[in-house]
């Protein structure tokens, strides 16, 4: 094991689940949801257009923790079968003498290689009907921070906060700090389509208080959960400071994907290849190594995180990454810019597409349970909220983007020597290996029954 007489820097990676960039005050949201993360961003670099191209949880974390895209990891589905086809960040750092601890992500194929795994309650409500997820995380993480600080080895601490992930159950006073209405108003019918969506109805009713009629109340619970998490994260940051670790610790805040709230019929979940799920935060703080208060508008992707970490920490590790280190970009000398890229989803629908600064193409690989059209096209300049599907009008654009996407797929298949996993992962829905043949079949087949069921879909316990 290498000498640690000149101790290597520590790494804390906040891989927050389901955090929407546009619901953070750091990114201009009108509600003060993230004052402590805003301060952290002011002490480091904030990336304004950071994308997670392959959703949901499992493929996104696979890219985050390997520096590879979905062709290299072979991971596209939430219920991925088998290992991740690349070395993980935890394995790399453990090999060069790091203590590695993972909090809240036990058993997922993307979390392979940590020395220690700690769990906390992130799903089920307490006797007050609330789930203090971030406090539960702190209860196991703060003692671990003390242990890591006392060791003579540098450490890598990965934290998977779950507060922005449904169920949104922030404790008082956070459940009402962004809502002042009457959530039981009988004249408000905005929750009717939510309760009538059979695949999710039972799950949503299991945690949304009985009689809630206003969708704004549920969306405010999301904002409250983010604000609650932010205050608890400050407790962690203060612990880092008190332990004397701040100057020698690289801190990164990001997310695996965003969240749909009341948009696109994808209620209070994270499916649909719309920007509310694809765009995520990225904040990097490393005193003396990155400037304070800098904002970068260039497009970055989640596979950039691992190569950036290794370069910032000046670790002599050979990494054949698909992403690129963002250090040149931080230093105003980007080596290459990303303008268009491939996007994939195997959450509750199997779709892929192509995104440019101007256009978003989404193509279904099998019928989906929202009865959406097979092809969607959005003009991101004129319609940034992606509400107006112009696929039938802009047929030449559909053909152009489809040809660019297909050419990219062929290139990556040749480079990796494997078929696009979007074509081979047919058991993505957990209901056998046959694709759905109709939207009605998908609607009738897919179902989340309760929070316990939802939790079991996220990660299995290690044997």
Automatic annotation (TrEMBL):
List, for all copies, the residue spans of the domain called Sulfatase N-terminal. 9-314
UniProt cross-references to Pfam families, sorted A to Z? Sulfatase
Q: What is this protein called?
A: Sulfatase-like hydrolase/transferase
Q: Which organism is it from?
A: Paenibacillus radicis
The lineage is: Bacteria, Bacillati, Bacillota, Bacilli, Bacillales
